[in-house]
Amino acid sequence: MTDERKTELQRNLDEVNARVAAACAAAHRVRADVRVLAVTKTFPASDIDLLAELGFTDVGESRDQEARLKKAEVKAFLRWHMIGQVQRKKAKQVAHWADLVEGVDRADLADALQLGAQSAEKNLEVLIQVSLDPDGTQNRGGVDRGQVVALAEHILALSHLTLAGVMAVAPLGGDPEAAFELLARAHERLLGVAPGAQMVSAGMSGDLEAAIIHGATQVRIGGALLGNRPPLT
């Protein structure tokens, strides 16, 4: 079964890589500038070890307890990303297992992650989650685009956090190209106060091409790589 699963993952990875390469060519970008993050939430630790054998260095999880258990089980040394919303009360735990938190959208969460990173005696990379929802709505989470710089300045003052860039999720039912163009503008403003924050995490299985056109340096791929998700428990 392991060999069959590895073959399946390799086939899926080849297809994802072909899509990423085509999108980079269309955008006149270098393929090496875009990383594929394997989103492994709900999938077993055995899949993560297989992905490591296929060359993956980074994986993304979105549930604290699941991630901690899998990290303890996985044999490979990887960078673990926390993606999505983080509850403030879970921030300390997340700071202990995560290498990068994608989804910081408020100052009090940044403060809680700072305390967690201090407790873990580590430096924690973070991305600001930028809302791409239409004005007046808040479906996918994130800080308002007009508040990105203020939040960045707050994070930059925290000794155990490193601001690595931005992340976003395109709004449900919206035009992903238009949304990711807004993200690119927000990222440009961020670079004015944090020139080292070069990372743009955007695009998933259904819209990675639009994200790459507008500057994504990382696409977060789950279903197109790993297949249909097992049911949540």
CATH class: Alpha Beta
Mean pLDDT: 95
What is the element string, with H for helices and E for strands? HEHEHEHEHEHEHEHEH
What is the strand content? 15-25%
Q: If you compute it from the alpha carbons, what radius of gyration comes out, rounded to the nearest whole angstrom?
A: 17 Å
Structural class: alpha/beta
Pfam families: Ala_racemase_N
Domain Alanine racemase N-terminal: 28-230
GO molecular function: pyridoxal phosphate binding
InterPro entries: Ala_racemase_N, PLP-binding_barrel, PyrdxlP_homeostasis
Description:
The longest helix is centred in the first third of the chain and has 25 residues, at 2-26. The protein is an alpha/beta fold. It has helices at residues 2-26, 45-53, 64-73, 91-97, 107-120, 148-156, 176-193, 208-213, 223-226; strands at 35-39, 58-61, 79-83, 100-104, 124-129, 161-167, 199-201, 218-221. Helix 1 packs across helix 2, helix 4 packs across helix 5 (107-120) and helix 6 crosses helix 7. The mean pLDDT is 95. It starts with a helix and ends in a 7-residue tail after the last helix. The protein is globular. The chain has one domain: TIM Barrel (Alpha-Beta Barrel), CATH 3.20.20.10. Strand 4 (100-104), helix 5 and strand 5 form a beta-alpha-beta unit. It contains 9 helices and 8 strands. The protein has an 8-stranded parallel beta sheet.
